[in-house]
Amino acid sequence: MPNNQLTIANDIESLQQALLLLAQAGKTVALVPTMGALHAGHAALIAQGRELADVVVVSIFVNPTQFGEGEDFDKYPRTLTADVQAAQAAGAELIYAPSVNDMYPDGFATTVSAGEMGKILCGKFRQGHFDGVATVVIKLLLRVMPHFAIFGLKDYQQFCIINRVVEDLDIPVEIVGAEIVREADGLALSSRNRYLSEDERKTAPMLYQTIANVAKAIPKTGTEAAINQGISALTTAGFKVDYMEIFEEHLLVAAWLGSTRLIDNVEIGE
Amino acid sequence: MPNNQLTIANDIESLQQALLLLAQAGKTVALVPTMGALHAGHAALIAQGRELADVVVVSIFVNPTQFGEGEDFDKYPRTLTADVQAAQAAGAELIYAPSVNDMYPDGFATTVSAGEMGKILCGKFRQGHFDGVATVVIKLLLRVMPHFAIFGLKDYQQFCIINRVVEDLDIPVEIVGAEIVREADGLALSSRNRYLSEDERKTAPMLYQTIANVAKAIPKTGTEAAINQGISALTTAGFKVDYMEIFEEHLLVAAWLGSTRLIDNVEIGE
């Protein structure tokens, strides 16, 4: 049984009340922003938060502004009760699970954008997605004002964009990237994995295996040939590849298996 | 002689050092963001700051990102020595006059936007202007973290946009609007008034007189007729009117006299 007390705040007032108590007690805070549907990857983020700070705050908010038309906002898994248990078990002491109206009251109009960096790679296929991400993350950071904020490196482009906007807006927080947690067969943990059919689940680990192979092949065959071969291998296996590209010393991929879009990345070069 | 001590910070490090001393002394802070070329309107903002807070911080930064191509960024008046004296005389204790590189280091990419509200009125004629304004104001607020920030109501659309983004991003500051300061003949004080030729200066007060008349005429003749008559009067007098429109219970106008663009507004209704 976890022995950490858990407070659940559903609006900004109760959040700030809880944060005030923590500040008065002189506690340092790490924020783990999530969209819920917690899995072992999130638990690792929370565990890392516990190492860095006295208290871990987990936000749970399926942010509508980062979903495009026709994307999976409506069907995105919402599992609040299980999430609360998982967050507490992993060591969180405060959960902020606001409503859409608490985050975006009537008249809300502001967008934070990282510019070009949000328009390439996933941003090309998910227009406006990273503006939605940047805006909600800045809001969460300004509401919680944590000492640390921890993000998974699976969403590597997102991680780079968050670093950019936080630095550009001088938000006083240390952004921490947490290593990707994978299944035994290599598949990166993702809330969207639960969309996969049994067959798709068997194919899915190829995504990681392929980029790991491409990353190894790049020094030998050159970037273009290696990537082309990787895309071709994924396509043959039944993936529809949105892109496979190098970005900030990482090889990034996004590909569909049926109606599920998966992303992954590996660091390149020695 | 003013007896307030004056500190001048030219970069974020010296700014934060000065702010730390103020925080340690338990002082409340009011920020007056300016582009320099200080006039009696700015002095009134600083005086208002003194009433609200222990210490007034004046930022002086001609922000390149709020000027469009072909606008007056290069010729915008830069009078730092006189500005420092004027700010001190008005009661400021800390001046933050950063370089462009201090505000926007290499790689800077972030934009804060108020959406549609920044695309109408002046935003239609000055594309990207209000994104530049919103971004630099958010940056200044997050760097200074003042208790109050004071803006002149002459830039009424700007004032509304700043309120919007500050509220939307949950920045913990009270935004204060300061009444327009006018010359004896009614011309609203503006750093750009110094661009006016002697003849243009004589014509310029018509801008205020006209919108004051239009505001009075609206209940009698209706909005459209009153505004059309106002635009026509200004055009006859030699103005080139960008727009005259009602926005948030104010009648706003922007018009050119020669190569100088002037704006003004009056509250409408009783």
Structural commentary:
- The structure is a homodimer of 270-residue chains.
- Chain A is an alpha/beta fold and 270 residues long.
- Chain A has two domains: 7-178, Rossmann fold (3-Layer(aba) Sandwich), CATH 3.40.50; 191-264, Pantoate-beta-alanine ligase, C-terminal domain (Pantoate--beta-alanine Ligase, Chain: A,domain 2), CATH 3.30.1300.
- Helix content of chain A is 41%, strand content 20%.
- Chain A contains ten helices and ten strands.
- In chain A, the strands form two sheets. Chain A has a six-stranded parallel sheet, with helices on both faces.
- In chain A, strand 8 (240-247) and strand 9 (250-257) form a beta hairpin.
- Chain A is globular and about 60 Å long.
- The interface between A and B is medium-sized, with 23 and 23 residues.
Average pLDDT, all residues of chain A: 96
> Helix/strand-derived class of chain A?
alpha/beta
Distance between the termini of chain A: 43 Å
Question: Uncertain regions of chain A: pLDDT < 50 for 5+ in a row?
Answer: none
Taken in chain order, the helices and strands of chain A follow as: EHEHEHEHEHHEHEHHHEEE
Instruction: Give the second-level CATH assignment, the architecture of the largest domain in chain A.
Output: 3-Layer(aba) Sandwich
Count the DSSP helices of chain A: 10
Could you tell me which chain pair has the largest interface and how many residues each side has? Answer: A-B, 23 and 23 residues
Strand content of chain A: 15-25%
What is the share of helical residues of chain A? 40-55%
Oligomer: homodimer
